[in-house]
Every structure is written in C-alpha cells, then in structure tokens.
Amino acid sequence: MRAGVLFSGGKDSTLAALLLDGFYDVTLVHAGFGVGEAADHARETADAIGFAFDDATLDDAVAEEAVERMAEDGFPRNGIQTVHEAALEAVAGAGYDAVADGTRRDDRVPTVSRARAQALEERHGVDYLSPLAGFGRGAVDRLVDEQLEVEEGPAVELAKGDYEAELRELVREHGGDELAAEVFPDHVQTRVTGRR
Amino acid sequence: MRAGVLFSGGKDSTLAALLLDGFYDVTLVHAGFGVGEAADHARETADAIGFAFDDATLDDAVAEEAVERMAEDGFPRNGIQTVHEAALEAVAGAGYDAVADGTRRDDRVPTVSRARAQALEERHGVDYLSPLAGFGRGAVDRLVDEQLEVEEGPAVELAKGDYEAELRELVREHGGDELAAEVFPDHVQTRVTGRR
C-alpha cells in the first residue's frame, strides 16, 4: 500500500514516516506554494533520511485565504489550519492508498477531528493516518532523541520546508516586516538532518 | 525504552505491538482476573508472534464493580471501560517506560481521552501510547490483512485472552446463563494465530 506523508522536514512528520515505514510504501510529500526554497529543503531532508519524495503545489487562493486570515487574527493558528486542510485534500487526491501527517495527540494546530478524517476518507477513497495521534509530547520527544539527528536555530534563519517559512514570506509581502513579526514572533525551530 | 502493551491476543493489540516494535523493547501484558485460561491463550499468541509476555492480575474489586455494572446495564460497554482503566493503571505502575493499548480512532469502547492519558502519565511517570489512535477502521483492517494470520469463530467458542472471555464467565457466575447471553450476545470474534 502506498502512503503519501505530508512532510516539512521537521521532527513530527519525520517520525510519522518512520512509524509507517515497513507497513506502507512511504513517499514524503511537501505541500506548499512554491515560495522560496521550502520544497528544496524538504527534499534534502527526505534524501538524508532515505525516503522517496514528491511535492504538491497548492492553489494560490488557499495562500490568499490563509494570509488574510492571519493578518486579521494577528496569529497564525487558523491560517495554518486552512493550509493543512488544503494539503491533506491535495495529497488525498493524488492516487495514494493512504494520506498521513505528523499531527500529535497534544497538538493544538493543525488538528484533524475524527469527523473530518472520516469525511476525507469517504470523499477520496483513501485512509487518513495520523501515526502520532496516540503519542504525547513527552513520548515524541523521547523517540526523536533516540531516532533522529536534529539541528536547532531561530525559525527565521533555519532553512526548513514547513508552512511557516512560506507563510511568513507571504504575510511579509502582504503587510510588511512588522505584520510578519507580529504573526510569527521569532522562536526556536528544529530541522531533521538525519537518522541516528 | 521498555513498553508494556496491553494484550488480548486480538488483532488490535497485536497490530499496536507491531507498530511499536523497533522503537520500544515491547512486552505484551495480559491483564485479567485469573478466570479460565484467558492468560494462557494470550501467552500462546504472544509466543506465536515472537514477543515477550507478562501477565497482570487485577483486583477482585475491579471485577465485582464491572460485573455489577454490566448486570445493571444489560450491555458490556461501561464494565469493559472500568476493566481497561484498571488494566492501564496496573501496567503503568509495573516499571515500564511506556504503557500502550490497541484502542483505535473509531472505537467506542474502551476509550482513553487526552485528559485521562495525561493524568495517567503524570501519576506514574510513564508515557501512554495508543499507536492505533490515528488509524481508522478501514486502515486497521487492511493492515491486519497484510500483516497477520487470524482465525475467526463465535466469541463463546474462540479461545482468546480478551476481557470479554473472563467477564462473560464472571457475569454467568453472578447471574446465570441468561444474563451472560444478554450482556454478551454471541458474535463473531477473531484471534491472531501468527504473522504473515
């Protein structure tokens, strides 16, 4: 069975892929808007951990909706949720038997409710998998320590393939540096560089 | 890291163990009341699929509470939930780094809410893992077909190690054959006999 795993190059989506490996033929899929080099960074990480890679370009209308929402809110949560839902739809419609993501039990965003998962499955005839849904923050941290090599740095500098990198640039284009700094206050991010 | 996986010999707890294998040093733990041969059946299945095995005997007071509840309800759901919670407590207190079960995304019983999971983790200093929490019914069925050899039969005849086998006998002792048949109407059950 083929699984497309939504992939940012971060710890959670990497760990989700490792949990499915051996049960599914896993392809890591970067979904984004073609802004900057996010997809390239995700591809590099996929190569480093030895998985097949693909990318999916989401509709510009999704970016616009997310950016407007974040500019209005002043925080990223709802905009990121919008993008994640669009990314799931894109990968679910791309011919895989299953679409997966790295959402964890203790995550607040993005979230995929059981009802939304079942609707996605019925609409596209795929299975939706969230391999980390049954793992809390502590368990994920301990597994990452054992399984992965990670690099840490300020989010604005760390070259990564997550939604934030692209959305920060789109918000900057929309409302300038000040709005970008308001919506995405700088914080420490991590990026996977390999397997232990 | 050592994980104790609550184990009945059924498909879900077996699949949960397979998903954790390679990430944890897995021991399959049968929790029950020492009624009949439930623990022996679970041990046979654990041997057949190549995992370490242990058993935990739960307090008689738990059995009494569950049986009284089921006799009153006329259905097993709340009684099984009571036993599952006691089983999690027992394994969480047995020295493992993590305690796991086979609860699935689409299950109605037993369920472990995020709040209950976090409380269990804090109380015992362990991680609680539900590896199938991010897998729906269809995905679990497809993984079982690919990974496991299973045997099917009427629940009353199939020698298995789940809560139902023991609780049915305890309900029968409490209220006779009629009550046992009311609480546990016969249905088709499956038991894992090996890996593919």
From TrEMBL, chains A, B:
Keywords: Hydrolase. This is Alpha hydrolase. One of its GO terms (molecular function) is hydrolase activity. It holds the Pfam family DUF7411. It comes from the Archaea. Coiled coil: none annotated. The keyword Hydrolase applies. It comes from Halosegnis marinus.
